[in-house]
Every structure is written in C-alpha cells, then in structure tokens.
Design brief:
Blueprint lengths: L8 E6 L5 H12 L3 E5 H9 L8 H15 L3 E6 L3 H14 L4 E7 L2 H8 L10 H7 L11 E5 L4 H12 L10
Parallel strand pairs: 1-3, 1-4, 2-3, 4-5
Helix pairs in contact: 1-7, 2-3, 3-4
Length: about 180
C-alpha cells in the first residue's frame, strides 16, 4: 500500500498538446505547496533521455517517483501521454495500491486542435504535425472506465477547477510534508 487515506492521486492523460502539463501546473498553482507533479516528459525525455516504448525504464521511474511522493505525504499528479498499452498495467497497480482517493482524467482533444495548440509552444520548431500524427491515438482510454473524459470545449481554468472540485483538493489546506 502507498500514501495515506488523506493523499490524493490524480492521473492526467491525453495526446500531445492536449493541455496535460498546463492543467498540472494549474493544479499546483491553485493548491500550493504539497502537490507533486510527476511528469512523463520530464522523467522520460530529460532524466533518462529514452524513447517511449513498452517496457521502458521510465515506466518504473514514474511509478517509483509517484509512490515516493505519496508516502512522503504529497498529493500527486501523474501527467503525460501515458499510452494505455505501455503504461496501463503500472497505472492500474498504482491506483490499486493507493490508500487515498484516486481520480483519472483523459483530455480528449481532436488532432487538428492539438496541432494548433502545438504551434504556440516553444518546441514547435523541434517537431511538427507529421510526428504528432504518428503519436496521436484517438480516445486511448484505460480499461474499466477509470477516467473522466474532458473535452476540448473545457477551458484550462474550467478543467483545473473541475479537477480541484472532483478530487476534494479545493477543500484541503496546502500540505507541509
């Protein structure tokens, strides 16, 4: 078992440029100290510099990092594309082992909108529509209905507010782990 009955685990998934990282940053800003963001891109690309593939080392690193933060008393947001077939088993174990409430969200944004959003980012010069198309998976939901689907019509502020409310983070004081 991991975490406590008080810790919240939030899993934010979706395609590239669907708003996951922005939503995670918004949650941290709204909640304050005591909320850890475990970002797939940071651990996979920056820490390990590895490709996204089944069985890759980042899958375990994401799991260990989230568990460590939960055990240290942090609320945790795990965010990333987190393909269901690559990360689903790890996420299912993490969900099952977490003592507190766990909430999953899938940001469902049409491909054309992800391309438009990507064009506004600094990394737009690094990769483009062709790469994004090869990564895009329509409604890559985890099995068992464990995710709330958030559509492209939900603004960033609305998405953050919804997650804060749904998870109960809105009513909790910032933690001092």
């Amino acid at each position: 078992m991991v975490g406590s009955e008080e810790t919240r685990l939030v899993i934010l998934r979706g395609n590239s440029a669907s708003g996951k990282s922005s939503a995670a940053a918004g949650l941290r800003e709204e909640f304050g100290r005591g909320l850890a963001v475990v970002g797939q891109d940071n651990l996979r690309r920056d820490v390990l510099r590895e490709r996204d593939r089944p069985g890759a080392a980042n899958i375990g690193l994401i799991d260990v990092t989230a568990r460590y933060a939960l055990d240290a008393g942090y609320h945790v947001v795990v965010e990333g594309i987190l393909y269901a077939d690559h990360y689903g088993a790890m996420l299912a174990r993490l969900r099952a082992d977490h003592r507190g409430p766990t909430h999953g969200y899938y940001l469902n944004v049409p491909f054309e909108e992800t391309v438009a959003r990507h064009a506004t980012k600094p990394q737009s010069a690094t990769y483009g529509e062709l790469e994004m198309r090869s990564w895009y998976r329509e409604r890559d939901l985890l099995p068992g209905g464990v995710e709330t689907v958030v559509g492209a019509d939900s603004s960033l502020a609305e998405t953050v507010e919804r997650i804060m409310r749904d998870t109960g983070l809105a009513g909790l004081p910032p933690l001092e782990p």
